[in-house]
Specification:
Elements (H helix, E strand, L loop, with lengths): L12 H14 L1 E7 L6 H12 L4 E7 L4 E6 L5 H10 L5 E3 L1 H4 L5 H28 L4 H22 L1 H12 L6 H20 L7 H23 L4 H8 L3 E6 L2 E6 L8 E4 L8 E4 L3 E5 L1 H4 L5 E4 L3 E2 L4 E2 L4 E7 L5 H17 L4 H28 L2 H15 L2 H20 L2 E3 L4 H5 L4 E4 L1 H5 E5 L1 H4 L3 H11 L5 H10 L9 E6 L3 E6 L2 E7 H4 L6 E5 L5 E2 L2 E5 L3 H10 L4 E4 L4 H11 L3 E3 L4 H13 L4 E4 L3 H9 L2 E5 L4 H6 L2 E3 L7 H34 L5 H19 L7
Parallel strand pairs: 15-23, 15-25, 23-24, 25-26, 26-27
Antiparallel strand pairs: 1-3, 1-4, 2-3, 5-6, 5-7, 7-13, 8-11, 8-13, 9-10, 9-12, 14-27, 16-22, 17-18, 18-19, 19-20, 20-21
Helix pairs in contact: 5-6, 5-9, 6-8, 6-9, 7-8, 8-9, 8-14, 9-15, 9-28, 10-12, 12-25, 13-14, 14-27, 14-28, 15-27, 15-28, 19-20, 24-25, 27-28
Length: about 725
Amino acid sequence: MSTAFSASPCPGCVPATLASEEVARKLRANLRFSVPGVHCAACIAKIEQGLRMVPGIRDARVNLSLKRLSVEADDSVSEAEVKQHLAGLGFEANPLDQEALGAEADPAGRALLLRLAVAGFAMMNVMLLSVAVWSGAADATRDLFHLISATIAVPVVAFSGQPFFKSAWSALRHRRLNMDVPISLAIVLAVGMSIFEARQSGAHAYFDAALSLTFFLLIGKFLEHKTRGAARSAARELSALEVHRASVMVKGQAESCAVSDLAVGDHVLVPSGMRVPVDGDLITPTAQMDRSFLTGETEEVSVRAGAALQAGEVNLGAPLILCATAVGEDTTLRRVAAMVELAETGRNKYTSLAARAAQIYAPAVHLLALLAFLGWLAVSHDVRLSLNIAVAVLIITCPCALGLAVPAVSTGAIGRLFSKGLLVRHATALERLAEVDLAVFDKTGTLTRPGFDVAGSGLSAVEQAILLGLAQASDHPVSKAITETLGPQMKPAPLTGIEEIKGAGVQASFGGESVQLGRADWLGADFTGTGLRVGDTEARKIETTETLRDGAKTAVTALQNAGVPVHILTGDRREAAVDIARQLGVLDIQAGVRAEEKVKRLQELESRGYKVLMVGDGLNDTAALASAHASMAPSSALDASRNAADIVILRQDLANIPLALAVARSSVKLSRQNFVIAAGYNLIAIPIALAGLATPLLAALAMSASSLTVLANAMRVRLVK
């Protein structure tokens, strides 16, 4: 950069400049968190307003669709403090590493949309000029309109047709054909022959047909891209959920370091409420762990010194120390991520209906155009006439309707399902879902949700209000169950001096009395689990239970009636699984199954010829979701699980799962009908083109008519019930 215009700041500006640089240095614009408990505008307002009141936090923004929170804060505010404040607001939060997630912009989608807009605008203008030619303009007037059309069409085709040209060139370089090869050939030959005809004062030019072809096919390309673009790597999300900083014990003192710097044998300190960063053996005498992400177990697990801990577990008790036994790529979390990545790769090898059609259609189109050229050349000995007829054949047979056949149906189906609370995230999800003949459900968090047993606990209305006030200040699983159960029914008691005792519970004051919610041994109770103490009275045990998620019974019954057997595959205890299975009428149950075992079970079912639909929500389900033939996850699932799934269930109700299956089967049926429509259109249009009767007007009208027919048929998918 040239320094000719550089100037020194005035003395008065220097302090302001330094101050602004200091503010910029202190400002963290990308503290990112996954907040799976966000469900509505009220949740967003509660989080954003609550965090903005915290000293040091400049701004907070919640993305409801991604369930992400972005926080701008000074260096004095740590991720742990933000997480603690969110827990006080009643929301679980998991820090996400921005570098692991990568940029979320969609430059490819914006580029396609721009090319589509340019092609559409140019097509309309050239069509206006073509109307004059079709109406009888001749000689100089016709030639002028052709030249103006060329001026518009040539640069637009060169710009808007690049997605097809690049794809076709890539295919030809590897000595294969795809659908973009005949498309590109038709566009290039149509424009080339039109330029030649315009210079020779020819009667016909195909500029409008070339632009129409580009425009309609870009619609299909854009719809396909938006479907594919919804899918993000679940393996990347798993990496983002890992702990990236840890406290290593050095000469009795805890020192912060990057997790990547830890080595086997290091003693690692894990604070209360934090995830275990590496696999290791417990050194501390006892610990309370939440293993629900890994095992699906609903209850906290008590472990003693020497017990094996795995990366991803959450420390619910007092700070603990472990001795690292596996770090880096050898940890449990990384192994699960590797399984997910491998499963995603296998899923991406699925050949779609459009791809299978292209394998047959592309070479047939080229062969037909070549035969038309050679046949007319042999009969007429006129190269110009033969080329014009070959171009007409290419334009009429060019797979415009085929290019729209699947994307148009998919878009209609996706819109239909979205209106019912089902978000389709993968390009071939509907095709694979239509093939499933067996459904496998996780239990905890998928078929069931935790609840607080009000009747079983025997608490008065005042005690329940106190309980709710204390529970809202904790992110313990029991506290979240209490908040979800009592929150919609009553207002929390007005507590003061709320304080969370790490690894023990929450305490506050109410009406001059001390109130406490936490571990039974902290309360001095003679039972195990969680209890509530009000004043000097004896602690009362808090009873929790599992209840069926709304629509679970309806979904399972409907699937079974549709000829799709249902299995339950859970990491929870068999007693709990059997009770839920009995309520649902499911006979095939496997309990105590870990993440790797779930994948193996699905592989066994696939080897027996089943096409499996997997429905799950936890980290232990992520690899199974990615490896299944088709998969679904509720919106309350872990980010990584939602991203591994083909379809996300946005509502808390499972009743629309059978509808997704019905829509998927209907979409495949309609896509095949669209192929038949396109083939029937070609059976009529090809003889006309081969006979030399296909003028540019007829070619454009026939191509547009076939595309609109396909689009109209695709919209029928919205009628599926």
